[in-house]
Design brief:
Length: 179
């Protein structure tokens, strides 16, 4: 009886400990840009966001020039690997992501995190992309294929975010326009 009671008390913690090691995928960096003032970096960051995220669902939630904080939800367009009938395909996929940029005199920090697949036709996992090697849900295909798709999503989002970061760094280092 004590063994059964122990099992029911400990089992929930065992299941949580398996997923606690997998963290949500995020991309962050502090970038130095000497001699550029906080106010100018803030304006450039807003302009970059507006130019990079044109989907109507992409919105800035906080834009505080005083604290140098921009927090937004952005629609990130990426792709994932899919194999059907012996042919490899790259399928477009939409993610809603949390995006934050913090600016100070001479530097800024960006964060991209919580990539949530928002497409109905996708692989039907409703949580964020994580570092888990295996697909974290029951898939509609066999486990090997779902794991390949899952890992492909993570590889492709890294490529997509690195392209966005290159654009951000370019925007932030441009000389200020008067108009």
């Amino acid at each position: 009886m004590k063994g059964l009671l122990f099992f029911f008390l400990v089992a929930p913690f065992i299941s949580f400990s398996q997923t606690a090691q997998d963290s949500v995928i995020s991309f962050t960096e502090v970038v130095r840009c000497d001699s550029i003032k906080k106010e100018e970096l803030f304006v450039k960051a807003r302009q970059w966001f507006n130019a990079s995220f044109k989907d109507a669902r992409s919105v800035v939630r906080i834009a505080d020039k005083e604290t140098g904080e921009i927090v937004a939800k952005g629609i990130v367009i990426s792709q994932h690997w899919y194999k059907a009938l012996g042919k490899e395909n790259k399928i477009p996929i939409l993610y809603e992501a949390d995006i934050a940029i913090y600016v100070k005199d001479g530097r800024y920090k960006y964060e991209f995190k919580n990539f949530i697949d928002i497409e109905e036709s996708s692989i039907k996992y409703t949580g964020p992309l994580t570092t888990a090697k295996a697909y974290p849900a029951k898939g509609y295909r066999n486990k090997v294929i779902m794991d390949k798709i899952w890992n492909s999503q993570k590889e492709e989002i890294a490529i997509t975010i690195s392209e966005l970061v290159v654009g951000l760094k370019s925007y932030m280092s441009k000389p200020a326009d008067d108009f």
